Amino acid sequence: TVNATKAADSNYNATTSVTTTVTINSATTLGNGTDPSNSTIAGGGSATEVDSFTFQTSTTTDIISAVNISITNASSTSLLEVTNNAGTVVYGSTTNPTGSSVAITLNNSTLTATSGLTQYKIRITPKTQANLPIGDSGQNYTVTANIASFTSTMFKLVLIVPVRQLLLITS
Q: Is-contact 91 106, C-beta < 8 A?
């Protein structure tokens, strides 16, 4: 239900309340998954899961074509990937990300949301110790990441997704 107020004159003296119903026939919801535990890895370490998230539709199948990932200390990572829950399928990735927001275009029609709740992961690979940001020898890099937004064919609902997982890269 949407409520709107209309002024009776230009001085906004008297008001009339109008109520209308908006029906959303199909929507895709982004939610928080079961996050991996906090962990510490060395520079040059193996790919490590940093966040879990879910997609679910209200009715039918939706194709997720891109995601925008909010990430801290992106410059300490050499690879940022979106994978299935098992980590065996990579839907999209980017190398040597920078900044606090990274857009990833996903492979054609492969990441789908259905009426069943499906969990996916964000995985990072740290840079080697030699390639970590210059001048930061002995520095630790805290990396957090989560899906900030996504592109799909349906109406989108984004639940507030707290950033819980903490990955510490040591140099």
A: yes
d(CA 133, CA 141): 10
3-class SS at 131? helix
Q: Tokens standing for 8?
A: 């009776």
- pLDDT tens readout for residues 98-108: 999 999 999 87
Question: What pTM does this model have?
Answer: 0.79
Q: Give the number of other Cβ atoms within 10 Å of residue 46's Cβ.
A: 9
Per the document, the length of the chain is 171
Per-residue pLDDT for 158 more than 80? no
Position 96: which residue type? N
From the CB of residue 55, how many other CB atoms can be counted at a distance below 10 Å?
23
Nearest to 159 by CA among 147, 167, 143, 169: 147
Terminal C-alpha separation, the chain = 54
